[in-house]
Amino acid sequence: MMNGFFIDKLNIVQNHNLVGGLLPEVGREKLFRVDLKTGETTELLTHLKLEGSYSSALIIRCDGSKVEVYGNPSRWGRIDNLYGLATLDDCIAVYNNILDGLGLPRFTKCTKYLYYQGKDGKHVNKTADGAIIKHIDFTRNLSTGLGNERPFLKALSTQSIGRSVSPFLYPDENTVEWYGANVQKKGSTYRYIKVYTKTADLLRNQRKLCRDATEDDFQYFDDLLQFTVTNGVIREEHSFKREYLHRHDLFAYGLFEQNAFNQELQVITELRKRLEVSNMKYETIADQLLNEKICKSRQSANSTQMYYSMWLHGEYMDKTKSQYREHKSRLLKLGIDISQKLDITRAPLRLKASQIIEVNITQPPSWYRHPEIPTLTITPPKPQLRLVA
């Protein structure tokens, strides 16, 4: 695994451009749309939801040339995905096994980039000759200790990401997110990050996950809950969307190394480092800046403490000034983000004043049911047709 990360969701597509024939059409229904003004007819094949055991599901479509699969390969045929498949190769092997059963060609690695003219006639777009990744999620489990999930998430929710991307703490305090629709209108088309309490997630989905479960399955699921409660497990998830993947040349399967995501996957780790500092009290901010060698002189430390005081009391600060950015940078190293409105109930100084929460990457217990590549034989469904005018 990449420092504990595994793949949670994967959307992948490949255009096979066959000569001399078409692939079998796979979908839920085929729609015919007629423009009443021009009489032009277009066809649309909707996605087929392929259901596996324990309410797992994948979305599949083939229009005769292009094959697309979307879902969670780590969850396919499993009662849980507390731990999953760590490599793209393993995930695509799961998808390819299903494509074999549907009589569709497998996803293949790209060997070269291809270029084509955009619809506007000006821009040149980039693609590749194999499987194209449209969306990928990486996730891992962190241990905060019994009962420490919410205090830790509340502390995380005081910290911005990147260029002051604000966090959003859900009302139940079990989830904190960045780049989501709760802060940005419609949410980001670039990426998305969230951290949440895994026990709450398992309980919320227990009925669905345990559908058709055996007595052994129920006992196993109960053991999972006990494991997440005892260890205070929180889930860290990173979504990389189409725009991000194309901008960073991470869309062509086979033409990049998976560890190219490593740097972006460290953003929550950096936030944790900010919070894992000594107790933060107003009268000792300047001393901490000097002790940590963040400031070289008492004068500069006192200036930064003044900005901290302004933030603490809700005073106006001009965020366009270079001085603001300099003092913000210094205070971030102490786990204080003055770009965020102070909420004393979430402030990291309360978290560190009461106790030190040690956060570690969790390891699966010996009894954990690890994912396997399925060997099911699937009969391809007949597409349903519906005429729409």
Summary keywords:
389 residues, alpha+beta, 27% helix, disordered C terminus
Count of domains: 2
Query: Ends: how far apart?
Result: 51 Å
Radius of gyration from CA coordinates: 25 Å
H and E order: EEEEEEHEEEHEEEHHHEHHHHHHEE
What oligomeric state do the depicted chains represent? Answer: single chain
In short:
By secondary structure, this protein is α+β, with helices and mostly antiparallel strands. It contains eleven helices and 15 strands.
Description of the molecule:
It is built from 11 helices and 15 strands. With 389 residues, it is an alpha+beta fold. The protein is globular. Helix 8 (285-291) crosses helix 9. Strands 1, 4, 5, 6, 9, 10, 11, 12, 13 and 14 form a 10-stranded antiparallel beta sheet that branches. Strands 3-2-15 form a 3-stranded mixed beta sheet, with no helix packed on it. The protein has 2 domains: 6-272 and 362-378, no CATH class; 281-334, no CATH class. It has helices at 88-101, 149-156, 198-204, 206-209, 215-231, 242-247, 267-275, 285-291, 298-312, 322-332, 348-354, and strands at residues 6-15, 29-34, 41-45, 48-51, 57-62, 66-71, 113-117, 124-128, 132-143, 167-169, 175-178, 191-197, 233-240, 360-361, 384-387. The longest helix is centred in the middle third of the chain and has 17 residues, at 215-231.
